Amino acid sequence: MRNLFLPLALVGALTCGFAQSADSAKLTSSKKAFPPDVILESRLNPEAIRAHVRFLASDLLEGRGTGQRGGDIAAEYISTMFASYGLKPRGDNGTYMQKVPMVGVTTKPESTFTLTTAKGNTINLKFRDDIVALNETATPSVDVDTPIVWVGYGITAPEYNWDDYKGLDVKGKVLLMLVNEPPSNDKRFFNGPALTYYGRWTYKYEQAARMGAAAVILVHQSGMASYGWDVVRNSWGGEHSYLRNTNAPKLKVASWVQNEYARKLLADSGMDLQRAIEEAGKPGFKGQELKATFKAHLESAVRPFDSNNVIAELQGSDAKLKDQAVVYSAHYDHLGIDPGKSGDNIYNGAVDNATGCGILMEIARVFAESPTKPKRSIVFAAVTAEEQGLLGSEFLGQHSPISPKNIMLDLNYDALPPIGIPEEVSVGGSERTTFYPFVQQTARDMRLGIIPDAHPGAGHYYRSDHFSFARVGVPGFSINEGQKFTGHDRSWGETQAKDYNENHYHQPSDDYRPEMDFRGDALMAKFGIALGWKAATQPEKIEWLAGDEFEKPRKASEK
What we know:
This protein is an alpha/beta fold. The protein has 2 domains: 22-95 and 315-557, Aminopeptidase (3-Layer(aba) Sandwich); 105-302, 3-Layer(bba) Sandwich (Glucose Oxidase, domain 1). It is built from 15 helices and 22 strands. It has a 15-stranded mixed beta sheet that branches. It has a 3-stranded mixed beta sheet with strand order 20-19-22, covered by helices on one side. It has a two-stranded antiparallel sheet with strand order 7-8. Strand 7 (156-157) and strand 8 (162-163) form a beta hairpin. Helix 9 packs across helix 14 (519-537) and helix 11 packs across helix 14 (519-537).
């Protein structure tokens, strides 16, 4: 789901040919990272990735919606590919499918939302245009009519001596809050400019529910959210899914509102929104109950269903280590069909994330055909419901066929632009692990620059499926390209990034096109294979660095 083409800096230059050529010979010259019997240029086929993407992004699959016909077809297709490679099924009851029990909630258009300001002014909000909202309790009807409490960033972080809820009674009330977190350049305070999980909208809802709130209104600003209102509307305006049978507290109304309405609401309470945002980021911030109310009546269509993760395994060759594993993951779902949208209403998700699935299947094929197997097992997981909040990978992390304590590493692929040969790689989060020196060595061997995230405040690390593994202690990160591509200057890559993010990300126009160039996707597959092989064969276990936020769940899993 994350935005693509992170703006990144260049180191190095690389060409990659998949036929035998001077360039490909140069790539295979290093013996440090690539066992020759495992990784051969002739084996990684960019056209195989193209074929997978072309099918998964076709209209036949109807946007691969979670719990929808097209999503189920995608899962069957991937499981069939895994079977054809001779991989062992690791789903339920000897199959490749792991059932994920879910419930779909669709807010009906007859739902109503009204803000009443401190001055008695009434603001009626139009669903999808002004507000998006969902009933997390998954009941057909729910009502909220209660005071609004301004809680700034809505964060409780004792390790940073920060509590936006201090001194407030929020039980049963509506909380108005911001996405992101207090701005900082100090690594000791909310990790400096890099966003922590406290800044993600998912945390905001989770913490508010734990505090007993009835509802949350998140203020949408494109700069703070790192995407525009159209992305929010498209992602939240249709059916949204939740895991069934969980005991976690839920909100009656989980919503986003356009910035201008939050501005009007605060103005009538004698507050300037921009000034309020600035004050919310300072130590000593105190929230307050506004003399304003939020009234909502949500009518919802509620649909229990089962979706599936698709899981396969290549068993390791070492009798003592084969019960440990390296995981490769990618999500196969997208946004499905919007029946209320005129014209093209299929969200095909070619880049997001048919590309990741194509790479996952090609990696699985190469490992399966290798005459030499790694010591540890290799697990391939195509997960569902990433676009619904990383739900498939969350379920997999909690119900893994291999215990998280025995998973060395998760290497995730999410939305890799098929636009040519990259000269740099993005591996944000790998630097937080003991595996990073080998990541660096592999990049050097392949003449790829490792580039930092130029927008760490966007929180990309928390927006794809590797995060679900990290939450249960497993070191993991996503592999992607940067913005400098062979034959083009950096401004060309930046233009491609801007065009995709503004015009195609979570839009029906994210289509397969014949002119797509999948050589770069194959190169990223090769890079990932090298990392996975090393992780599966090295004697020492991969860990989080001391003090990392995921060190505690890693240690807890090992007890």
